[in-house]
Amino acid sequence: MFMPDHPSARALLAFRAAHGRRWKAKLLFLWSTGRDVEEANGACLRQLRNQGGPAWLGQLSPRRWRAIERLAEPGDRQTASIFLDRAREFHEGARFGATVALAPALHLLAISCELGLKAYLMSRGWSHDEVARDIRHDLIAAFDEARRLGLPTRGRILVDLLTSLGPAYAGHRIDALVADGYVCDFAAVLRATGSFLDAVAAGLSLPMPTP
Fold first, then answer.
1. 127-182 pLDDT, tens per residue?
2. Alpha-helical segments (H) within the chain
3. Please, what is the end-to-end C-alpha distance for the chain in angstroms?
4. Which of 51, 88, 126, 130 is the most buried (most CB within 10 A)?
5. For residue 187, is pLDDT > 60?
6. Residue 150's pLDDT is what?
7. What is the mean pLDDT of residues 82-92?
């Protein structure tokens, strides 16, 4: 589902605060008449009309409103960029570790995913304390929240990896997971997680690493 960027989220919340209980009807009227651009932050309201539209507006649940409230926050991009740097280091460690043994390499990859997801959340309104307290090491919860806040889904490989690896990582059972027969195309997994980290970097407006 479409989610607004930081300026558009702020504009929507400001419009809601300014127009009271019937703010949705007011915004729909402005969209239908083209007068949204006359409002404060009119360019952002027009962007919401073009990208989301009336159907999106009508489907905003309390949970999605909480996500929009987070998107309106400035985010801690400085800490997020540090987390992303560490995520890339663990990703590179996993690349080399795979030549030795699968379980340690998967553990390094799980750490990389955790740090990358937390970096994205902190760029979208979550604080460092919140991700430490509420997300902890839950890769699936972090991934679900990141997608709710606009992170593009990077294909089935990443989703399948996190679904399999997440519970084992949270429970310190990656060795047992591998011993029970878990296998994957590690080269494909590395590419998928690398693309995921690039998407996080794009969300932080950070440069991609040079090859």
1. 999 999 999 999 999 999 999 888 987 689 999 999 999 999 999 999 999 999 99
2. 6-19, 23-33, 42-51, 53-58, 62-71, 77-97, 102-123, 128-130, 139-148, 155-170, 174-179, 186-203
3. 33
4. 126
5. yes
6. 87
7. 96
Count of beta carbons in the 10 Å neighbourhood of residue 77: 17
Tokens of 195: 């693309």
Both structure tokens of 173: 């059972």
* Helices 139-148 + 102-123 axis angle, to 10: 40
Per the document, the length of the chain is 211
Write the DSSP assignment of 94-148 as a string of letters. Answer: HHHHTTT-HHHHHHHHHHHHHHHHHHHHHHTT--HHHIIIIITT-HHHHHHHHHH
Q: How many angstroms separate the CA atoms of 121 and 13, rounded?
A: 20
Cα–Cα distance for residue pair 172/65, rounded to 1 Å: 34
Q: How confident is the model at residue 203 (pLDDT cuts 50, 70, 90)?
A: confident
210 Ramachandran zone, left/alpha/beta (phi>0; psi -120 to 50):
beta
Give the residue-averaged pLDDT of 56-78.
88
For residue 128, the Cα-to-chain-centroid distance in whole angstroms is 15
DSSP 8-state class, residue 77: H
- Residue 26 structure tokens: 């007011």
